[in-house]
Design a protein that fits this description.
Order of helices and strands: EEEEHEEHEEHEEEEHEEEEEEEEEEE
Radius of gyration: 21 Å
Strand content: 35-45%
Largest sheet: 5 strands, mixed
Number of strands: 23
Structural class: mainly beta
Strand order of the largest sheet: 4-3-12-7-8
CATH architecture of the largest domain: Alpha-Beta Complex
CATH class of the largest domain: Alpha Beta
Shape: globular
Distance between the termini: 30 Å
Number of helices: 4
């Protein structure tokens, strides 16, 4: 028998952007070959300096840690959903520019590393420190701006000092693959994946608000098409779900079918998933399965008795413990971030 397996979906090659074949993955943890890839620049060169991590700025004792130093420190392992903030961008109406992700820019991995706050205990933070800036090794040009830019972002102190914000060196029990940030990557649970800076090469405490282009130009919600008025930063993941099976526009035989998928959130935990088989007129609760890691997704399933021929619109919506409910329509913004409208699948029963 041939070895039949899914393959990532290519969105661009340079820089490489690959979508996970999310509809065909059943494991709770995404295998590395199927983990989505999102890059702004070509892959960086890894040198000896890539294994050094200086921590400086508004600190009492500037220090440089070697990646081997982190291996000797107390560590923790965390299952974390990583979702690109542009996931499902192709579904926005009116359409927006950017990588046209269709739902597979999300994955889940088990990351091991050292809490960032442990490193900051060694250096000490000054009373003037307001934010922590993280700079990656990847760099390149930006359209309409002169010079070369590295990918850099900041976190407010409360998020930076959270015990589960870690400097990771392993993914799924192995050293982080090069494509996902080897040798060190910042992991920020519950925030969209742009916060989890790859190929981490520098940490700097600052006394002001960081205004780099990946903080103030990109990864902002701009609700107006031609104005910056009302902009807000992209941070926590919106409550979301996806119907993995059946696939959109499938033709199915009459009978009982298993509708199943995933649900996740950046606020609290998933509490319910509901499914509609009539385009949203009536909703029934799905069964949530598997473990409920605090930062992980849940799997869910619903048995659908479909014996009448015709066209059907299937939908799923999730709710979380913070009171957020997946909406019928996503809030439009001109860069196409945070799409989380009902997952919708059309099928025909014959």
């Amino acid at each position: 028998m041939p070895d039949i397996k899914p393959y990532p979906i290519t969105r661009s090659l340079i820089p490489e952007n690959q979508e996970s074949p999310i509809h065909f993955l059943s494991a709770a943890i995404t295998p590395e070959p199927y983990f989505f890839r999102r890059n702004h620049f070509p892959y960086p060169a890894i040198t000896g300096e890539s294994f050094l991590l200086p921590v400086s700025g508004e600190v009492m004792r500037p220090l440089t840690f070697h990646s081997q130093d982190l291996l000797r420190m107390p560590s923790k392992e965390i299952a974390v959903v990583m979702e690109c903030s542009g996931n499902n961008r192709s579904r926005f109406q009116p359409e927006v520019y950017g990588e046209q992700w269709e739902g597979g820019a999300v994955s889940q991995g088990v990351w091991r590393g050292v809490p960032l706050r442990d490193l900051l205990k060694w250096t000490g933070l000054s009373a003037e420190a307001k934010e922590i800036v993280f700079e990656g090794t990847d760099s390149g040009k930006r359209t309409g701006q002169e010079g070369t830019f590295t990918f850099a972002r900041s976190l407010p102190l409360d998020k930076a000092l959270h015990p589960d914000t870690i400097i990771a060196y392993e993914l799924n029990g192995k050293p982080i693959p090069f494509e996902h940030g080897y040798p060190l990557r910042l992991i920020v649970p519950q925030w969209y994946a742009m916060a989890s800076v790859k190929w981490l090469r520098k940490i700097t405490a600052i006394r002001h608000h960081f205004q780099g282009p990946f903080q103030e130009s990109d990864y902002m919600y701009f609700p107006e098409k031609n104005s910056d008025e009302g902009k807000t930063p992209v941070t926590a993941i919106h409550v979301n779900s996806i119907i993995q099976q059946p696939i959109n526009y499938s033709v199915l035989k009459a009978g009982t079918h298993r509708i199943h998928g995933l649900a996740w959130t950046g606020n609290g935990r998933i509490t319910t998933v509901e499914v509609s088989t009539d385009g949203g007129k009536r909703w029934e609760q799905a069964t949530i399965q598997g473990t409920r890691d605090p930062y992980g997704w849940v799997t869910w399933t619903y048995a659908w008795a479909a014996f009448e021929q015709g066209d059907y619109t299937l939908m799923s919506k999730a709710a979380d413990s913070a009171g957020f409910i997946q909406p019928a329509e996503a809030r439009w913004n001109r860069k196409g971030y945070g799409y989380n409208a009902y997952s919708t699948v059309n099928v025909k029963i014959e």
